[in-house]
Amino acid sequence: MKAFTYYAPTEIIFGCGKIQTIGEVTKRFGSKVLLVTDDSKAMEKVSERVLNLLREEALDAIHFNGVKPNPTTEIVAEGAAIAKAGGIQVVIGLGGGSSMDTAKAIAVEATHPGSAWDYNCHTAGPTEKTLPIIAVGTTAGTGSQVTQCSVITRTSDKDKSAIWHRNIFPKAAIVDPELTKTMPKSVTAQTGFDAFCHNFEAYLSVNTSPMVENLALEAIRMIVTYLPRALADGDDMEARSQMAWADTMGGLNNSNAGVTLPHGLGMQVGGHCPHVTHGQALAAFYPAFTRYTYPAAVKKFAAVGRIFDSSLRHVDDETAAGRCCEEIDQFLKKIGLWICFKDLGVSMEDIREIADCGQVLGDYLNNPRVATIEEMYELMVSCYER
């Protein structure tokens, strides 16, 4: 059995209604709070609710609602300036992955020289001066509430990168499935598929461990069963709860084993084409990725194939692994994400630029089969039309 280390320092507060604890949790870390959200209509009520809960605990709370999808260094700088001016002691990220990632980056920039970008994964990273972070997810897919990752984009050079450091693990994560009820169907599908990818890729990763493998397989089982249910009925709280937990497991697995080829390329898609969501980029690329990778991970693809279709228990691993690719295709169709890059407004010129940046992040090295730049380009071209 291989040796491994598993590290998960975030306190997880899970369950319907647990948002009520936000005030008492936050005051453990400071009295001056920056609440970081987007400015969407759907976020207005929950933001107001959280601000009231914080103020009931006599906390001094400032609201920064400048988050946008694929958050940029400019957005982080704006939030960090507010944090510095207000003497902020703790930062809360409330929303989807973009809000939680922005909160983490603000916690870094508010306490360090320069910008958050200066502490990305190509550097030594931020120090322990980073402000305490509390993460509250309103989607079920990014896993950011329990990771040491903050994805940000430097728009000047179309570069999407990440801070990846243990000093930005949230101190606490409140995972309240009731907060995900307002997600539109499209967001439920895209974030739900992202949760599938986090778990599947951590399971495949060359850096995986027995702990990650077991958690990942359980999460995949849950997503296969409950994501279609959540899409069929957004008020199905059992489905929402199971997806919230599968999402959290995906974050735990990602933080310990990493992700693989699709995520590195998917982040570059977001950097070059910020109108494309991360879930959409993954969905467009996955049919090519699975067929490229499965010959190098037959047993693992076979195991996941048998989760989708139990009848594959009666066939050999090679057959089950090949069928797994088809099952994932069918799952994408079932959840409304059978899409291609052309559908998403990603041009052939964009694909060339994205592939050329495909090795900027090290995720591709975690893949059981390591792709060259030209292989990345060919794979992406094969996903241009479907």
Task: Characterize this entry briefly.
It is built from 13 helices and 8 strands. It has about 375 residues and is of the alpha/beta class. The strands form 2 sheets. The protein has a 6-stranded parallel β-sheet, with helices on both faces.
Q: What features would you describe in this structure?
A:
By secondary structure, this protein is α/β, with parallel strands linked by helices. The chain folds into 2 domains: 170 residues, Rossmann fold; 198 residues, Dehydroquinate synthase-like, alpha domain (Up-down Bundle), CATH 1.20.1090.10. It is 48% helix and 12% strand. It contains 13 helices and 8 strands. Strands 1-8-5-4-2-3 form a 6-stranded parallel beta sheet, with helices on both faces. A hairpin with a 4-residue loop joins strand 6 and strand 7. Helix 3 packs across helix 4, helix 8 packs antiparallel against helix 9 and helix 10 crosses helix 11. The longest helix has 23 residues. It starts with 10 loop residues before the first strand and ends with a helix. The model has no long low-confidence stretch (mean pLDDT 97).
